[in-house]
Amino acid sequence: MRKLIVPSILSADFTRLGEEVRSIQQSGADWIHVDVMDGHFVPNISIGIPVVKSLKSLNPPMMDIHLMIDNPEKIIWAFIEAGKPFVKVVTIQIEACRLLHSTLTAIRSYGVMAGVALNPGTPIVNIEEILPYVDLILIMTVEPGFAEQKFIETMIPKIKRLRQEINNSDYKPLIEVDGGIKLENIRAAAEAGANVFVSGSGIFKTEDYSKTIQAMRREIENTR
Ligand code: DX5
Ligand code: ZN
Predict the structure, then answer these.
(1) How far apart are CA 102 and CA 144, in angstroms?
(2) Which of 13, 14, 142, 176 most suits a substitution to test ligand 1, by most atoms within 8 Å of the C-beta?
(3) How far is CA 37 from CA 144, 145, 174, in A?
(4) Which end of the chain is more exposed for a tag (fewer CB within 10 A), N or C?
(5) What is the DSSP string of 21-55?
(6) What is the reported pLDDT for 142?
(7) Confidence band (pLDDT; 50, 70, 90) for 8?
């Protein structure tokens, strides 16, 4: 399948968020990644429902909403409603949700892809029982909470193991990576088996978004 490049707007200039999203769209981004943090699950607070709602008026790329919040099941519907019809994926953190099966099923029932994210310390064996209910597995390649952290190298063998497991399974969720992804290391993540690449500072802190995204595409083409 086509590999997707997904800029995280957490690294955008919020005083010009509309322009930033337009320019990322013109630069050929596949989706945009929206990082939602609650100050409980992670020690940071970022953006939420009103921002998702205002992005909608821009006719934006499809949104990949990453909920780094406790008990996401209580509020998922509000994000989906706010971003309709531009919400492609809603991803919850496996560590933050005690009702995984019903929450993932609820996300799908809204016609949205259901994602589950694993922190660096969470083993992939934890997703075994929910594979039939997920469309995307997000391997966090940094500890969640902040942009501009360093990619954790030991996540490469983890991605490889997950790719192997999916290849041997009847279920074929996408593998997304998020955290510290840049032009210099995107190829290693692709070779390990990821097919959706989130990048915040790796795109927004460069001069020319379009050039960066094109260069990233060249790096990941012809990988598995
Ligand atoms: C981290 C977020 C990431 C982050 C990525 O908690 O989930 O999406 O914004 O930013 P970079 O690419 O700068 O690590
Ligand atoms: Zn994220």
Answers:
(1) 24
(2) 142
(3) 9, 7, 23
(4) N
(5) HHHHHHTT-SEEEEEEEBSSSSS-B---HHHHHHH
(6) 98
(7) very high
DSSP strand E in 157-215: where? 174-178, 196-199
> With 80 as the cut, is the pLDDT of residue 224 above it?
no
Per-residue model confidence as pLDDT tens digits over 155-198:
999 999 999 999 999 999 999 999 999 999 999 999 999 999 99
Token pair of 81 as six digits? 């409603």
β-pair partners for 198: 6, 178
Q: Which atom of ligand 1 lies nearest, measured to the CA of 140?
A: 7
What pTM does this model have?
A: 0.98
Pocket lining for ligand 1, CB < 6 angstroms = 8, 10-11, 33, 35, 66, 142, 144-149, 178-181, 198-202
Q: Which residues are catalytic?
A: 35, 178
| DSSP-derived 3-state class of residue 219 | helix
Considering only the top CATH level, what class is 4-220? alpha beta
DSSP 92: E
What pLDDT does residue 190 have?
A: 98
Give the number of the atom of ligand 1 that is nearest the alpha carbon of residue 204. Answer: 13
**pLDDT computed for residue 146 by the predictor:** 98
Q: Which two tokens stand for residue 89?
A: 């994926």
Mean pLDDT, the chain, rounded, equals 97
222: left (phi over 0), alpha (psi -120 to 50) or beta: left
What's phi and psi for 195, nearest 5 deg?
A: -130, 0
